[in-house]
Structure formats: structure tokens, C-alpha cells
Amino acid sequence: MTQLPAQTRWERLTQWPLLALAVAFALAYAVPVVHPGAESGVQDVCVGVEWVVWGAFACDYLVRLALSGERLLFVRTHWMDLLAVVLPLIQPLRLLRVVSTLALVGRRARMAPQIQLTVYVGGAVVGLLMFGSLAVLEVERGAPAGNIKTLGDAVWWSFTTMTTVGYGDHAPTTGLGRLIAVGLMLSGIALLGVVTANIAAWFISRFERDDEEERRQTALLETLTQEVRALRGQVTALGGGTECVCGQGARRAPLA
């Protein structure tokens, strides 16, 4: 049996523990935003959980960097992980490991690549929708001219922004809120393009499979037709030889 690289073994070993930490971070991030009037002790616990999770992800990055063998290549190909470690303010992006976990489950279930991509996109949509809502709510709640005051308003705004519908009933008024809106718009357009390409690829693959099956059946019919023609030729040849032998016997009978 082939020995897996050390980095792959580490990633498989830590996949589920990091997923649990990601869920803990999501809860710790959401509680102070949804309930800004929570007790100071609760907020301190949430901040502590966030830093513990950030430290765990930082250790995970350093271990994978050490096990990669080609550290410069690892840094170039995992630049988002590096940003999430260096800049704790954007560490919610590390929760996209949830998507990779779902994709891993999909591969173990032997799902089609299109289904794996659908699971990935679905997880990305949920993550961006949740954190976009919490982020804009945290920024816009205290804005004097803002109209995003509740979690429901924030979720509705995030959904309409990501789908590029933009009803305009809720909109950010602060600079940071508008920056979050730009990010959600670009993410929504990108995800919509991925979904469209995924559906198109699925139809194309189905058509290609149907064409291949049709070509295979056509080739089989041609082969059977040639065999039938060859059998007919043999039968005709045998029939002609029999008639010839019978004719010779009929001419020789009077001489006897």
C-alpha cells in the first residue's frame, strides 16, 4: 500500500477537529453581534474563543508548512491561509474549511464531480451569507443614517446582494459596510458563474455519454449486419452446391 505524504496525513487527521473549532469560532463571532447587550463575561469568553481558534489555525498552518517539503510553493499556493493567520480580522475566511470537509465527504460517497462542486458552492454561499450578514449588522447597526438594524434586515440584505437582485429597501451607508457589499456582490457573481458552468458541464457530459452510447450501438449494429451478410453468403454457397450435386445424380440415374 502506498504511503501517504506526511502533510496529507496531517490534514486528514485534523480535518474534523478544525471543523469543530470553526463552528466554535462561528458561534463566538455571532453571539456579540446578535446580542450586543450581552454581559461582559460572555463577550470576554467569545473573544477568548476567537483567539484560541485563531491560534489553532495558526499552528495548523505552521505544521503544514513544515511538512510540505517545498515551503515557498506551499506559501504561494496557500496564500489565503497565510492571510487568515497573519490578519486575524479576516480569520472568518478560514471557516471555508467547512466546504472542503463537505467535498471530502462527497468524494468518500463517490459522488459525481458536479455534485462535489455543488456541495462546495452551497457551503460557500451559506458561509458568505452568514458572515456577510453579521459583518454588515455589526457595522451598520450604530450608523445614524443606517437602516440595517436587525439580523433579519442583515440576512435579507445579504441575500439580495449576493443574488445581485438589489431591491434597495436596505443598503449600507458606511464606508466599511459598502466595502462588505462590494465583496458580497463579487462573490455572488462568481458563485453564480460557477453554478451556471457546473450545470452546463453536467448537460454536456450527459450529451457526450448519450452520443458515445449511440455510436457504440451503431457500431454493434454494423458488425451484426456484416455477420448476417456473411452468413447469407455461406448459406447461398451451400445451397448452390447442393443443387449441383442433385442435378448430377438425376442425370446418372438412367444409365444404371
TrEMBL record:
<dbReference type="GO" id="GO:0034220">
    <property type="term" value="P:monoatomic ion transmembrane transport"/>
</dbReference>
<keyword id="KW-0406">Ion transport</keyword>
<keyword id="KW-0407">Ion channel</keyword>
<dbReference type="Pfam" id="PF07885">
    <property type="entry name" value="Ion_trans_2"/>
</dbReference>
<feature type="transmembrane region" description="Helical">
    <location>
        <begin position="179"/>
        <end position="205"/>
    </location>
</feature>
<keyword id="KW-1133">Transmembrane helix</keyword>
<protein>
    <submittedName>
        <fullName>Potassium channel family protein</fullName>
    </submittedName>
</protein>
<dbReference type="InterPro" id="IPR028325">
    <property type="entry name" value="VG_K_chnl"/>
</dbReference>
<keyword id="KW-0813">Transport</keyword>
<keyword id="KW-0812">Transmembrane</keyword>
<dbReference type="InterPro" id="IPR027359">
    <property type="entry name" value="Volt_channel_dom_sf"/>
</dbReference>
<keyword id="KW-0472">Membrane</keyword>
<dbReference type="InterPro" id="IPR013099">
    <property type="entry name" value="K_chnl_dom"/>
</dbReference>
<feature type="transmembrane region" description="Helical">
    <location>
        <begin position="117"/>
        <end position="137"/>
    </location>
</feature>
<feature type="domain" description="Potassium channel">
    <location>
        <begin position="138"/>
        <end position="203"/>
    </location>
</feature>
